[in-house]
Amino acid sequence: METTNLSKIRREKMLNTISEIKKNITDEKMLTNLSMIENELTKKKYGLIWEEHEERVDKELETQIPTFEEIKDKEIISNPNEKFNFLLEGDNLHSLYLLEKTHKEKIDVIYIDPPYNTGNKDFVYNDCYVDSEDSYRHSKWLSFMKKRLEIANELLSSNGTIFISIDDNEFAQLKLLCDDIFGESDFVTSIHWKRSESQNNSAKQLAIVGEYILCYAKNKNTHYFNKIDLKSTALKEYRYTDEKTGRKFRRGTIVDNTRGKNILEIISPNGIKKPLKV
């Protein structure tokens, strides 16, 4: 059963109204403005919508061309006949624009650790800290990230992969932004990693001990991480072959049977000690 798209109905009603208004208007400026409204109404209907902000560096790039300058007295090359790497220092958007000219579709792995936009002065926009009171802090952060991720996507090779660190503050927004730039179908996984062994006992709710790494591939269908060869003893366990795929598999229980070997002691409110298996 097809559902009724209420937003589409309202949008078409507004577009029809604008079309009728345009029939009775001859002023070129007014017609141009109405056409701009039509374009806004027909833009994408799913995904992130935010107030796009311009950075000072955007203005600079309109009139200035950044260049790389090699600092010879800082190079560390033990053998000039072997391959070596470059360390780029400067505004990241300047560097990305230059890399797009020199390394387009040539980068296999990109790792980005952007500002998390926590509101605790970890994110600088146009030389000013963006704090939690800034009503446009999410929009500024998304504008900042969008430009850089779009260039990163151009840099990835056909087998390229990008990893982006983030925490809860912008995880949801970043996931939607990356789906739009890299493609939802090329999302590999979200890696949740434990950043700290200690827990904050002063937390008012639950202590946060984890962060995330979003992973996208340039082409997920042809993308494979390096396989780890199994030892010969482990390979012997894969004695069966799947008739459809031809792949080896082994039979066994998938239930974790390693638990229950440690016994702790708990004390009830009345002082009675009881063993507890974990």
Automatic annotation (TrEMBL):
- Does the record bear Transferase in its keywords? yes
State the family it belongs to: Belongs to the N(4)/N(6)-methyltransferase family.
InterPro entries per the record? DNA_methylase_N4/N6 (IPR002941), DNA_methylase_N6_adenine_CS (IPR002052), N4/N6-MTase_EcoPI_Mod-like (IPR002295), SAM-dependent_MTases_sf (IPR029063)
Q: Which BP terms does GO give this entry?
A: methylation
Q: Which GO terms describe its molecular function?
A: DNA binding; N-methyltransferase activity
- Where in the numbering of this chain does the DNA methylase N-4/N-6 domain appear? 107-238
Instruction: Identify one Pfam family in the record.
Output: N6_N4_Mtase
Originating organism: human gut metagenome
Name under which the protein is recorded: Site-specific DNA-methyltransferase (Adenine-specific)
Q: Which UniProt keywords apply?
A: Methyltransferase, S-adenosyl-L-methionine, Transferase
| Keyword S-adenosyl-L-methionine attributed | yes
Q: Which residues form the signal peptide?
A: none
The lineage, from the top, is: unclassified sequences, metagenomes, organismal metagenomes
